[in-house]
Each structure stands twice: as C-alpha cells, then as structure tokens.
C-alpha cells in the first residue's frame, strides 16, 4: 500500500520489473495518504476559520440539520423546506463573506442584505387566504417598507440619525431575527419596516433559543401538550405579529385548553386601531387593558362532529362547501366574532371583539389582573346573588333570541362567567339563528341546562325548562312532559324546513314579533 500510494513512484528494484504478472500500475493514484491527510487538515482549518468569522451561521447550520435529532421527519414539506433553508443559509454565508471582503474596515459599508435568500417561509401565502380584515386594513403592514440602513448614520445636520437611533436599531433587530433557528418562524417582518426594540428583540431571541430546547425535549418525549399543539409555528407567528404591531403588549399565559380552542391572556397594547363594524363605518377603538386570545385549534378532529352547527347555518351555507378544512376552522372564529358583535350591540354582557386574524380571535378579558372571572359552576353565590343571576340570565336569553336572533346552543354554567356582580356570556362560536334546522332543539337544551342549574342552586322562582323555552322563544308549546315537548319542537323545525324547501324562505312563526332582525353580513 505505501509503495503504491506514492505518486512519484520510481521504478522498483530489478526483480520487480521481471515479475511475470507485470509491474503494478501506480500512475492512477494521484496523491499520498499524507496528502489526503493534509488536505483534510486544510479543510478543517478553513472551517475553523469560517467558524470564527461567522459563528452564528455555522452554529445554526450545525444545530438542527447536522445532528438530525430534533427533526420531525414525518413531514416531507418540512424536510424540503429545511433543505431549502440550509441551501439558502449557505448562500447567505457566502454573501456575507463577499460583503465583508468588499467593505473591509471602511466606515461606510455596502449592504447585501437585500440579496439574501433566507426568508422565513409562509406556505399560507400561496393560498387565497384573505380574511375580512385583510381586505380592508392590515394593522401589521407598514406603509412604506424601507431597507435597514447599515452605515453608522444617515441624514444631514440636525436630521442625522445614528445607528443607536431607536428606529434604526429597531429595524436592525428585525433583520437580525432571521438568525434565529430555521424552524423558528419570524414571518415576513424582515421585508417590512418593522422596528423591534432591543428589549423585544432580546426577549424574542431568548424565546427562540428556549423554544429550540423545548422542542428538542418534546421530541424526546414523543408527546406534546394540548396547548403546544394548538400553538403551531404559524399561530405563534401571528401572535408575535400582534405584539410587534403594538396591538398586544405581552401574552402572559394560557387560561384554558379546551377541545376546540386554547385561550390566552394578554395585556393590550396602546395603539388606536380601526374596527370594521358590520353595519357602520370604521370606528376608532382603544384596545382593552386586558385581552383574551381565543385560538381555534387547527387540528380538525374535534370539529368534525360539530359540522352541523355551521353547515346548516344559512349564513355560512354557500361558503361551506367551497372551503378547505382550515378555512372552516377560521369560520368558527369568524362566527364567534359576528355573534359577539350582535350581543354587544344588544347590550348583553359579553367579551368585546378586538381583532380577528385567521383562526385567532382577540377579545376583551373578563376578569382582572390575569385572573379570569370564575365560571358560574365554580363560584359560590349568596342566595340573593343567585336569584339576581337567574333573572339576568333569563333576560339575556330573551335578548339573545329576540334582539340578536340567536340561540347560544352551548349555554350552561360552564359558559357563563360571574364578574362585577353579573353574569357574562362567552363561547358563542356555535351559536345559531333560531330558524337553524336544529335551532329550537339547541334552545331547549340550553333551557334545560339553565333551569336545572338555578333550580339546584335554590332559586325557587326559576322556571322549569319548558316554561323557560316558551318564555324565551315566545312560542306556546303546551305539552306537559319532556318527550311530547321535544316532539313538538322537532315538528316545528320540520315544518320550517319544508317551507324553506317549497318557498325558499323561512317561516316567521318562530319570531314572536314578526320578522327577525336583519343582519347584513
Ligand atoms: P371552549 O370552546 O374551549 O369552551 P371558551 O370560549 O368557553 O372556549 O373559553 C374557554 C375558557 O376560557 C372559558 O371557560 C373561560 O374560563 C376562559 N375565557 C374565554 N374567553 C374569556 C374572556 N373573554 N375573558 C376571560 N376568560 C375567558
Ligand atoms: Mn366553553
């Protein structure tokens, strides 16, 4: 081997040339083992040098890619994106070297920033994802995107801006976000004129790192908490955008993890924002000091059995069939927003809508100092308060039906909060109009829950479920037992459906006082 490896092999000893099998062919081997070794050494040295020059790039590349420990290989898309990202990063590293070479020690430098490849992907953007807010005003979009000034200062005389300027620094921080781990979604903020304060940037950076560690831990355990699942990178990105845009000050933590949603508490930001009411023009609004963020889960399983609520709701009927499952989930958020708005307009105590963004609904927080108001089922009320709560609930159910033209459809002590000495209604994503094919059945179920709760709670005046149903709906179903009552309700629903089939419109008999109110949505 040693002899064969020598590139400049001189002719061997005399006995070798006389060898009956001929002389070994040594010319095809071009370098010695020692050379190979030294070339490796050179590569290593070069790598080391690069490491020293561009530590952040190398650190990122070595992190999730090379070790391959934290990668979720179950997703081809993810894999492709990661490969692309790796390629882009290499490209960018090269670009940085060029940039450095050109600029040298010069005080004025040329930035290649705009030629860089790494833009966090947003697979959503390829789809026709325009929600109701996008079409009017996007609070996250900067008016004039500008590039990050790389030199120490810009401007002249009094208008000079140094790199320590808050605005400049903020933009730079935004640009630096892309140095976070590749799976950390920083959004398209880089292309915008976003300004991150050092404090926010550092917090975000810290979060990116701890997120990386946490992600690794979770993969080891091969399990995810329910909250973790709901807050996928895309959702997180949307939440960060809300914080960056100043809509929210901080997101403090999770209040509730349910089957269909996760609710977070947040402190409201101090920007004035525009709302788009369904019927009126835009209106200036101040963000409530404390907000609840309801994130509708993007895992579909739980929603399947609730299809009937939305599929049969004529307001959403036409759209339903054309939508992909992700959009259907957004529709839940949208539905909750519309329903809350109706309730708000009727003066029913309920969360005030702040913002809807895709499957995320931000509303005012019912509670104080991060502590949510207790559910009616968890609070111990004096008999006086209990009675008060009952009459208020009766009143709200009537208002909801008559003024909002809605049936809650999930009303119980679980979705009523006790705050400021009164009952607040929440969780109205599934609420439907009374003429919904199952609307009256839903109402009857609501009445049963409410009647039972207050009767058990010792309110002697509380109507039973059938009386309550008639009191709320204005109908006069006379059956004196549950089974017959239920049958009459179903007969009414069927009559209405048949009428719709034959005449293309709903009967108005459900509404005690003529036509139901019209909401032009
Ligand atoms: P789910 O469909 O998961 O039941 P909810 O809308 O009922 O969703 O919210 C879940 C829980 O989160 C509620 O029981 C309540 O404790 C809390 N919550 C929801 N919205 C608010 C709000 N606006 N203010 C305070 N707490 C809220
Ligand atoms: Mn609920």
UniProtKB/TrEMBL annotation:
For this record, the Gene Ontology CC terms, alphabetical, are: cytoplasm
Localization, per the record, is: Cytoplasm
Q: Please note every region of biased composition (Low complexity).
A: 1-14
Ranges for domain RIO kinase come to 220-474
Q: Which domain of life is it from?
A: Eukaryota
| Cofactor annotation | Mg(2+)
Q: Which Gene Ontology biological process is one annotated for this entry?
A: innate immune response
Which EC class heads this enzyme's classification? transferase
SMART domains the record matches: RIO
Q: Where is this region: Disordered?
A: 1-20, 120-157
Query: Which reaction(s) does the protein catalyse, per the Swiss-Prot or TrEMBL entry?
Result: L-threonyl-[protein] + ATP = O-phospho-L-threonyl-[protein] + ADP + H(+); L-seryl-[protein] + ATP = O-phospho-L-seryl-[protein] + ADP + H(+)
User: Per UniProt, which keywords does this protein have?
Assistant: Antiviral defense, ATP-binding, Cytoplasm, Immunity, Innate immunity, Kinase, Magnesium, Metal-binding, Nucleotide-binding, Phosphoprotein, Ribosome biogenesis, Serine/threonine-protein kinase, Transferase
The cross-references to Gene3D superfamilies, in alphabetical order and at most eight, read: Phosphorylase Kinase, domain 1, Transferase(Phosphotransferase) domain 1
Q: Where is the composition biased (Basic and acidic residues)?
A: 133-144
What is this protein called in UniProt?
A: Serine/threonine-protein kinase RIO3
Question: Which organism is the protein's source?
Answer: Sakesphorus luctuosus
């Amino acid at each position: 081997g040693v002899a064969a490896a020598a590139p400049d092999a001189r002719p061997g000893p005399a006995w070798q040339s006389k060898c009956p099998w001929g002389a070994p062919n040594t010319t095809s081997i071009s370098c010695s083992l020692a050379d190979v070794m030294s070339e490796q050494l050179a590569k290593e040295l070069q790598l080391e040098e690069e490491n020293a020059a561009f530590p952040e790039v190398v650190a990122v590349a070595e992190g999730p890619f090379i070790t391959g420990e934290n990668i979720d290989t179950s997703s081809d898309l993810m894999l492709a994106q990661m490969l692309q990202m790796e390629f882009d990063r290499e490209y960018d590293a090269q670009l940085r070297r060029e940039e450095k070479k050109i600029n040298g020690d010069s005080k004025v430098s040329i930035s290649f920033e705009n030629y860089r490849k790494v833009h966090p992907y947003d697979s959503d953007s390829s789809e026709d994802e325009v929600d109701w807010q996008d079409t009017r005003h996007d609070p996250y979009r900067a008016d004039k995107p500008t590039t990050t000034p790389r030199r120490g200062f810009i401007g002249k005389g009094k208008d000079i801006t140094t790199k320590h300027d808050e605005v400049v620094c903020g933009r730079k921080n935004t640009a630096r976000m892309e140095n976070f781990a590749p799976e950390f979604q920083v959004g398209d903020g880089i292309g915008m004129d976003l300004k991150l304060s050092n404090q926010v940037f550092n917090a975000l950076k810290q979060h990116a790192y701890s997120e990386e560690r946490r992600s690794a831990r979770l993969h080891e355990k091969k399990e995810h908490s329910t909250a973790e699942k709901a807050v996928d990178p895309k959702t997180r990105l949307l939440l960060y955008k809300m914080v960056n845009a100043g809509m929210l000050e901080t997101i403090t933590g999770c209040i509730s993890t349910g089957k269909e949603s996760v609710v977070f508490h947040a402190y409201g930001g101090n920007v004035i924002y525009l709302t788009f009411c369904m019927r009126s023009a835009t209106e200036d609004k101040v963000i409530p000091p404390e907000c609840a963020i309801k994130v509708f889960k993007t895992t579909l399983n739980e929603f399947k059995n609730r299809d009937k609520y939305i599929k049969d709701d004529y307001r959403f009927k036409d759209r339903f069939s054309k939508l992909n499952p992700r959009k259907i989930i957004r529709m839940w958020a949208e539905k909750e927003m519309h329903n809350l708005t109706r309730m708000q307009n009727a003066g029913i105590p309920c969360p005030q809508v702040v913002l809807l963004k895709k499957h995320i609904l931000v509303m005012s927080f019912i509670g104080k100092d991060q502590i949510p108001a207790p559910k009616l089922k968890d609070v111990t009320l004096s008999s006086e308060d209990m009675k008060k709560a009952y009459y208020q609930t009766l009143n709200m159910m009537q208002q909801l039906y008559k003024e909002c033209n809605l049936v809650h459809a999930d009303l119980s002590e679980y979705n009523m909060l006790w705050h400021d000495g009164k009952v607040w209604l929440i969780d109205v994503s599934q609420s439907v109009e009374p003429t919904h094919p199952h609307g009256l059945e839903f109402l009857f179920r609501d009445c049963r829950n409410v009647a039972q709760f207050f009767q058990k709670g010792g309110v002697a005046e509380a109507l039973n479920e059938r009386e309550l149903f008639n009191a709320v709906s204005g109908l006069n179903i006379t059956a004196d037992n549950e089974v017959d009552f239920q049958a009459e309700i179903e007969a009414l629903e069927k009559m209405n459906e048949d009428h719709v089939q034959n005449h293309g419109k709903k009967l108005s008999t459900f509404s005690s006082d003529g036509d139901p109110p019209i909401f032009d949505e």
